[in-house]
Design goal:
Its cofactor is heme. This protein has ten helices and six strands; from the N terminus they run αααααααββββαααββ. The termini are far apart. Bound molecules: protoporphyrin IX containing FE (HEM).
Length: 252
């Protein structure tokens, strides 16, 4: 069951293609024969994807208003496809398809860097089903609850190095190349890990890449002055006062 759960909801390779229809994959799964369980899982799918995407996009756009160099690199990555679309008469507004953003390694790095510093689910909370010993050597007992701060983990020098506080998408690329660097999910825990890994992980990165590509290519973003940008203590890492950004159509 665990293997199926991890593959489900992904897109891209053969295995993933087969399970791209999430609803059918659950309906056809004997582990979800209980209608209430199926109902709960489908509800989880509808709820889990909403606020998490919203807040990731908010923090990403905020960071982009602060980092014009990063915006230029994203536009450089988008330009071959965007200019081709313009040449073939696609009109003034360039809209990117999910397929077209697949090769955009830097854009993926930007999103992962946001998710590292601003994990939409900032805490993991798990209650122990049985006594156990953690990899750290700590004893835990049935009924006890463990809280893991993903927000802190994303900012720890021991894990991410001296520049752990910097917004640096290049850390997600192999040194001196434009190839993605893969970090283990127990280190980059924003989507959780193992059997608890988010089944929407692949889909959400594709969706967000498409949105950020389309906004960044077509508009200049400017942060409206005088705002206080700070996180709000809640179960998702919202912005306490929201984000106000001016969008100006780019002349290309
Ligand atoms: C940036 C976006 C997202 C992040 C950071 C994220 C993160 C997570 C995390 C950390 C968990 C594990 C929670 C736990 O430990 O129990 C989780 C579970 C889940 N996520 Fe996501 N998620 C995102 C988007 C999505 C989307 C778009 C979908 C749906 C298409 C989705 C569907 C689910 C579902 C159904 C679960 C529960 C799985 C289960 O209980 O077996 N997520 N997500």
């Amino acid at each position: 069951m665990i293997t199926k759960k991890i593959n489900r909801g992904c897109i891209g390779n053969e295995e993933e293609q087969e399970s791209a229809d999430i609803l059918s994959s659950y309906i056809n799964d004997p582990d979800y024969a209980d209608v209430e369980l199926l109902h709960a899982m489908l509800l989880a799918f509808m709820l889990a994807g909403k606020d998490t995407i919203d807040v990731t996009l908010l923090w990403t756009f905020y960071k982009l208003t602060q980092n014009p160099k990063i915006v230029s690199i994203i536009r450089g990555e988008l330009s071959p496809i965007a200019l081709h679309k313009i040449d073939t008469g696609m009109g003034a507004m360039v809209i990117f398809d999910p397929e077209e953003t697949k090769s955009m390694v830097y854009l993926r790095a930007v999103l992962y860097e946001t998710l590292r510093l601003y994990p939409p689910a900032p805490f993991e909370r798990k209650t122990m089903a049985a006594d156990n010993i953690m990899p750290s050597g700590h004893e835990v007992h049935a009924g006890e609850t463990i809280l893991i701060s993903l927000h802190s983990m994303g900012r720890m020098e021991d894990i991410w190095g001296k520049d752990c506080r910097d917004y640096n998408p290049h850390r997600w690329l192999l040194e001196g190349s434009n190839k993605p660097r893969y970090e283990p999910s127990h280190k980059f825990l924003s989507f959780n890990s193992g059997p608890w890994i988010c089944p929407g992980k692949e889909i959400v990165v594709i969706q967000m890449r498409t949105i950020v590509a389309t906004v960044v290519w077509n508009f200049d973003l400017e942060l409206v002055k005088g705002q206080s940008i700070e996180p709000k203590l809640s179960c998702t890492l919202q912005m306490k006062n929201g984000l106000i950004v001016k969008l100006k159509k780019r002349e290309i």
